[in-house]
Records
---
Amino acid sequence: MINRVEKLSLLSEMIAFAKYDKDINNVEYNFLLGVAKQLEISRSDFDYLIEHPVTYTHLKSHSERIVQFHRLVLLLNIDSESSSSGVIKLYNFGLRMGLSHESITKVLYLMESFPNKIVPPDVLIDIFKTQYN
């Protein structure tokens, strides 16, 4: 299980991702707040992170990195105005997390074939599992 510092780092990273091209809209805010609740981060800590990001902490667990990448895919696609710059940003976040570029590329390619561009978790896990083995 990840510790509090890692949780704050994950959430801070997601906030930065949501802010990459504009302010966080209501849908993104509510999604991020839901993630904060899942990570057992208080709303006051969450609101603080929006204005005061924390330093990135690299996750040791490959499975936690995959879960985080999936969260970023979801975050990208809850905004109906997602752009190619968002996809590039997602790709770069995945690389920074140490995920294989082949897996990231495959997820981004397959994303177009799913309703609302949301890759189901089992499909995403299979993609990374295949590349990891």
---
Amino acid sequence: MEHRTDTYFTVKDSAQTQFVEQRSRFISFIWHVTQADEVKERIAALQKEYYDARHICYAYMLGPDRTEWRANDNGEPSGTAGKPILGQINSAGLSDVLIAVVRYFGGVKLGTSGLTEAYRLGAHQVIEKAEVITAYVEREVTVLFTYNMMNVVMKAAKDLDVQMGAQDWGSFTNDKFSGSFDCKMTFRARLSVADELERKLDAIGETQAVREIIIDK
């Protein structure tokens, strides 16, 4: 899938806030998550720790394209909890994030508008406390080349500030070219930078360097 951008916003670590509204206590949590299974684990842990709470409502957004999401009211009137939590995630433009709000009922009913505002505020406060960071969509570029082209390949990566990952030495073959190669290196870089690295390697190819590009989308 092509991405319109290779950057998006998420949170670096977890954070927690709380406030009291009409004697109901709202405890908010935020985490960086990348998979729905992580969400399930976090919510299960909250349910175990706050077993005596009336409600544990949450919402999450996953992926650079922000296409995987869910909002859960956990017994509150429909649309009064998960939806306002998700709304704050969207307002902040976050992804790969889970926000859960634990409510201890204080005996006073807040009404639908009061609940909506309380869960909105809980999500807003915990986002404000968390450290929002820029995350990057990345690709892997694996390069096969002969040893005499080492400096040229490394310079192409260094010019783009691309970090080297796995490397291997031996005898490698490529069906596209005759002969074998001495070196195999994998670089991981931002989507746009990986594209530029590929272009630089194409230019090297024009000067008789041989390479194989493997793109991991």
---
Amino acid sequence: MKKKAPEKAKSPAKLIDARIKELGDWRGEMLSRIRAVVKQADPEVVEEWKWRGVPVWEHDGIISTGETYKSVVKMTFAKGAALEDPAKLFNSSLEGNTRRAIDLREGEKINEKALKALIRAAVTLNKSKAKPAKKPRKSPAS
């Protein structure tokens, strides 16, 4: 009998795969679709698994999370308040100074073009605020 690997030993991608399968309903399908759009918008995205079970997509910092609840799949953008949202995708967490979220309910369609633009804007913002790599210190001349 194969032992189940502890959560910490599994890759974030495998943990996200397992969450999608575990949900087994519209929420899993929605999370899978969101994940695909994120990867299409930013092929260099890094998937993480944080806070005891939240998929997180990063590129020079957090882009967004993919939280699942009973009636919504919530895509929270870490710096959403600083992003232009001409398509008005943000519909949750609008009162804060930093984050913004998109709540997706059963049967709703994702405006993929607008979501990709929002993801790319988040990556651009993260890159603009990324700390430059430290340059090696020169040794004093002898």
